[in-house]
Amino acid sequence: MIVDWIYDHPTGLWGSILVCGTTALACLGLALFHPFVDVGVRRAHNDLAGFSIAIISVVYAVLLAFIAVATWESFSSAETIVQAEAGYIGNLYRDTKGFPDQIGEQMRNALTDYTESVIRAEWPVQRQGKVPGSGWKSLYELHGQLVSFEPQTRRGDCRRGILARPQ
Fold it and tell me: Residues 132-147: pLDDT tens digits?
């Protein structure tokens, strides 16, 4: 697909191709039409062309500014999401210290696997414009460990900050 071909090459290369290509096309057009159009006709149209180019340049600058702001906001939003997810993973990792050693270690391993999967497998897939799914296995494993945990002590019976009442 052409989109993959475009994204697989550096931005500087595409910028150079676009600038050089449009410049070459403009020079070719000038070279072709210069002999056929009289100098007096071209001189009369220069003022109109100058005003048209000025208007187009202002509109282009405004659109470029909007694109830059939208791109900056997208990157800021992505950064916020990544920071929030990293915070959630760190909090969960610390919370597993309250579980028995064997179960807590399994939960920490699942969180570590999830983090490694996101960084090493999912981010490259997202860069290609595809939807990843390799991190779900570790999350399902963690979820299974959480819901199957059976507390054995009164300390383990603490739910939502309120101690369970003895019966």
Answer: 888 889 889 999 988 8
